[in-house]
Amino acid sequence: MEGPRAGLPLWSLSALATAGFLTILTEALPAGLLPEISADLAVSQAMAGQLVTAYALGSLVAAIPLTAATGTWRRRPLLMLAVGGFLVTNAVTALSHSYVLTLAARLASGVFAGLVWALLAGYAGRMAPEHLRGRAIAVAMVGTPLALAIGIPAGTLLGSVIGWRAVFMIMSGLSLLLVGWVAWGVPDFPGQADARGKTLKQVIALPGLKTILAVTLAFVLAHNVLYTYIAPLLQRAGLGDRVDAGLLLFGVVALGGIWVVGAQVDRRLRGLTLASIGLFLAAALALGVFGAKPWLVLAAIAVWGAAFGGAATLFQTASARVAGEATDVAQSMIVTVWNLAIACGGVIGGLILREQGPEGLPWSGVVLLAAAWVLVKSDRRAGFGD
């Protein structure tokens, strides 16, 4: 991924990656701070986990209608507006002492996140030549594993020292800095003149897109059932006091995953997707069978991180190839499905945790990932064809 020689505008793409970093950090940080948040707001850990669900619901309900409504808007002001929304919502989250108000702020954060994610892949693709669009998307998506590798573990550690509220206030300040970066460091592009001409029905009927959406749903649902409740999974293995280390391990290995995907995605989309799903399936099996053995759990988390690192790039590259000029609309569908999976993951994971304990969590992932692998394996031409 050697940007300058390949003609990639790394400074501008890095701003997009930072926007992705901020959305993932805002989304997933409560997973690392569940005990602190639940104690502060006087709710159970399962209820605190619904702060992740509320965020996902905001993106779920907003991504498609907002993308359609803003399809003709210029891209840079729209991205600045979306990032600026985090300044307000993270500040409210930091200051609120009401569970209901905090939940509402998280819902609003998710609305802005849905718009950011609908923009990123198409925006990145317009900055690069045709043969490097997958690589440009990979650079823009690197914010996800960076947030997982550095942001969330650092935020979890920092939250244990200065309090979770202070961490959310810091993220609010980062939003302001990012708005300035986008204003002065990212090129502007017009919206799609025909954005309102393509109906959702026409876009979703494109060959292969339904398969891509179904695989995205299964993969991300499996991930979020486990990731939202990673603290109880680690507690089962006697690693309850090392949640930050588990998150760090996951994220560092995820960086390697996105590097591999970014280097090869323009040539080996299908093979990389099958490998990613297969690795995650193996990790979920290991967590199910060996979930009480600390070192095997850590090994499974590392494999899971490698599998997850490039997932967003794989699914968004596949949808961009299928959708062509309707990329932004297709991306809004990916965002909607992704966040449906996050929302359902929080709810389903909470129910499994309550009824079966942490040992029941990995087996839902095994079923979902096996189905996703079969879907990709049977799709040789349209969605995941090389």
Key words describing this protein structure:
single chain, 386 residues, mainly alpha, Growth Hormone, Chain: A, 18 helices, globular
The number of strands is 0
Strand content: under 5%
**The CATH H-level homologous superfamily:** MFS general substrate transporter like domains
Write the element-wise H/E pattern from the N-terminal end onward: HHHHHHHHHHHHHHHHHH
Q: How would you classify the helix and strand content by structural class? A: mainly alpha
Backbone shape: globular
Output the CATH topology: Growth Hormone, Chain: A
Radius of gyration: 19 Å
How many distinct domains? Answer: 1
Major beta sheet, specifics?
A: none
Helix share, percent:
over 70%
**Count of separate DSSP helical elements:** 18
Top CATH class: Mainly Alpha
Mean pLDDT over the full residue set = 86
Q: Would you summarize the structure shown here?
A:
The protein has 386 residues and is mostly helical. The protein has helices at residues 3-6, 10-32, 34-41, 45-69, 75-95, 99-126, 133-141, 143-162, 164-185, 200-204, 209-227, 230-236, 243-264, 269-289, 294-309, 311-323, 327-356, 361-378.
Describe this structure in words.
With 386 residues, the protein is mostly helical. The chain has 18 helices and no strands. The chain is globular, with a radius of gyration of 19 Å. The model is unreliable at 1-6 (pLDDT under 50).
